[in-house]
């Protein structure tokens, strides 16, 4: 049997596409079959394994918001044997690091590497398996994107548009448009996709087209495009958004134009900023709520204060699974608030004098946490007031993150939530709940991300230093009135006004299926192959990642893993989830179906 028995296409060669490829061959390695797979992988970006989000060539001012310590959970690849072919192992991320970086002392500041560093790892990992599989004739890589999928009831045909000439074993294809047919199964592992612009951005785009002089960037990344534009000391720059993308943008527009930060306090990572005449002298940040990202604890020793016990995490995971998929599944999202509160209470009480003082009983604290999670603007003596100046808020949160200030209840809740997130992501997959309850749970998790997806202390100290040096204006941070004027945009808040002539969108669109404009997604929706789980969410899939087909329709061998299946799964933006159990489950199911198939070989 020389010919492969199953032809599978992976659409998207970023981290999830890489792990899908590895997981398929691991499942094949662990099976007792002698059948083979032929895989066609489509990826328009030249750095396969990383995708554009983790590009090894991006600016080093784009940082991860996960510590290298947490990345110890990113597994390596074992050696696999398929027939006479040996697929080499590849180390875990931590094993891949230089020895001196692998196990830093618990009191050393956690390291948040540049995204390019992770991209270098992912690309190297991809190439080692790809070279082996291509050498055996089992993998074909198309350097281009799929625009359309046709399914005739037995096979898929992928219509693709190449960026360059397709590579490896594809010499007869047209260099621009071509088709790959007789595909038995397709898995979509595509990440961030273009979406429809909001009404606000549409109006701004039309304004800029008429005004000519002002600059508008509707996409946060790649930041290289922003750096290539003529943005200098003559410009006043505004950021639409006050999150991680904004921090990357302002870091690039200062450090890449000659500015520099200097540490003046190692214990708190406090910085002073030395400016350059090459960069804008005024930056203005704003968002709908004006709230900053919250720094993660400075190091492992500080972070351990917020770590629930193993028993508490185990009980929590069981409760989440029961609420999501049990016999008596939850009727509303409050079950998750209740379970989080149960975990937080003993952690906060154990902080003792390190926390804001109070005389609440465990029960009173429990209900306060639930009320806070239900309304994060709640005012209480244990909660950081949203009404205080944003610079004061950032300074207080830095103090908490560095053990130089007592800890508020909201900071504790946010850090405990982060430690609970892996259990939420694992146990809330493919929930058996009403769609509106799923949407509410996901909204609750999204609300936690200001804390759980928070940046390093250093990032917030950079913003504080820029503000103190007079370059970052925070007077308009909380939902200012915006008027379009000849010179750009006029922002107004609390009687103050400012005109900006460069506007950078720093808001990343959520994976909301109905707004995605990618041709392949529009094609699949128009042909009724996929449907949204909820108007605010992604594609409806089954427990193995396969698209759920309407009642009365036959199963379609199309799987969706990752960002566009948000709702069926949760935690779609986390790098560790790209190497998780859900992808392994799909791969094992795919190989099992290949073994059980009644089709004749070839």
UniProtKB/TrEMBL annotation:
Domain FAD-dependent urate hydroxylase HpyO/Asp monooxygenase CreE-like FAD/NAD(P)-binding: 9-193
Entry-linked Pfam families: NAD_binding_9 (PF13454)
InterPro entries with a match to the protein in the record: HpyO/CreE_NAD-binding, L-asp_N-monooxygenase_NS-form
Designated name of the protein: FAD-dependent urate hydroxylase HpyO/Asp monooxygenase CreE-like FAD/NAD(P)-binding domain-containing protein
């Amino acid at each position: 049997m020389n010919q492969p028995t199953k032809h599978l296409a992976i659409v998207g060669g970023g981290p999830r596409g890489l792990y899908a490829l590895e997981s398929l061959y691991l499942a094949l390695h662990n099976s007792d079959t002698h059948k083979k797979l032929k895989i066609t992988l489509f990826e328009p970006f030249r750095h396969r394994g990383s995708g554009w989000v983790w590009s090894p060539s991006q600016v080093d001012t784009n940082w991860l918001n996960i510590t290298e310590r947490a990345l110890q959970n990113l597994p390596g690849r074992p050696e696999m044997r398929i027939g006479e072919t040996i697929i080499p192992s590849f180390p875990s991320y931590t094993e891949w690091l230089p020895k001196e970086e692998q196990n830093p002392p618990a009191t050393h500041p956690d390291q948040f590497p540049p995204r390019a560093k992770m991209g270098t790892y992912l690309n190297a990992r991809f190439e080692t398996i790809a070279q082996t599989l291509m050498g055996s004739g089992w993998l074909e890589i198309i350097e281009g994107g799929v625009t359309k999928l046709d399914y005739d009831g037995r096979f898929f045909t992928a219509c693709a548009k190449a960026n360059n000439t397709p590579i490896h074993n594809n010499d007869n294809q047209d260099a621009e448009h071509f088709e790959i047919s007789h595909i038995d199964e397709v898995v979509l592992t595509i990440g961030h996709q273009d979406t429809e612009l909001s009404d606000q951005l549409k109006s701004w785009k039309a304004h800029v087209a008429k005004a000519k002089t002002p600059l508008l960037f509707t996409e946060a990344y790649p930041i290289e495009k922003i750096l290539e534009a003529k943005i200098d000391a003559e410009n006043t720059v505004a950021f639409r958004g006050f999150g991680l993308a904004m921090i990357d943008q302002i870091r690039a527009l200062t450090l890449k134009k000659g500015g520099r930060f200097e540490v003046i306090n190692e214990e708190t990572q406090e910085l002073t900023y030395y400016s350059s005449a090459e960069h804008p002298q005024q930056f203005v940040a704003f968002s709908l709520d004006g709230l900053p990202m919250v720094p993660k604890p400075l190091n492992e020793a500080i972070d351990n204060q917020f770590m629930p016990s193993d028993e508490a995490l185990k009980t929590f995971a069981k409760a989440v699974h029961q609420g999501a998929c049990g016999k008596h599944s939850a009727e509303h999202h409050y079950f998750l608030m209740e379970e989080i509160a149960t975990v937080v209470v003993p952690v906060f009480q154990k902080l003792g004098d390190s926390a804001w003082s109070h005389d609440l009983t465990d029960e009173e604290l429990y209900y306060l946490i639930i009320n806070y999670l239900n309304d994060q603007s709640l005012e209480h003596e244990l909660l950081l007031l949203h009404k205080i100046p944003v610079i004061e808020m950032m300074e207080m949160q830095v103090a908490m993150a560095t053990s130089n200030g007592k800890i508020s209840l909201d900071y504790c809740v946010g850090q405990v939530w982060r430690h609970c997130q892996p259990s939420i992501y694992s146990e809330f997959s493919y929930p058996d709940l009403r769609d509106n309850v799923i949407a509410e749970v996901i909204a609750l998790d999204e609300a936690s991300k200001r804390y759980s997806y928070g940046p390093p202390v250093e990032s917030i100290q950079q913003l504080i230093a820029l503000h103190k040096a007079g370059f970052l204006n925070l007077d308009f941070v909380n939902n200012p009135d915006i008027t379009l004027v000849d010179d750009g945009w006029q922002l107004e808040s609390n009687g103050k006004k400012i005109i900006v002539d460069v506007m950078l969108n720093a808001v990343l669109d959520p994976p909301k299926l109905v707004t995605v404009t990618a041709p392949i997604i529009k094609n699949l929706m128009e042909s009724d192959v996929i449907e949204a789980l909820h108007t605010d969410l992604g594609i409806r899939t089954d427990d193995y990642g396969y698209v759920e087909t309407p009642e009365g329709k036959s199963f379609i061998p199309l799987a969706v893993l990752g960002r566009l299946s948000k709702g069926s799964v949760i935690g779609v933006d986390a790098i560790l989830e790209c190497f998780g159990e859900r992808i392994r489950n799909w791969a094992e199911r795919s190989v099992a179906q290949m073994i059980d198939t009644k089709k004749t070989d070839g």
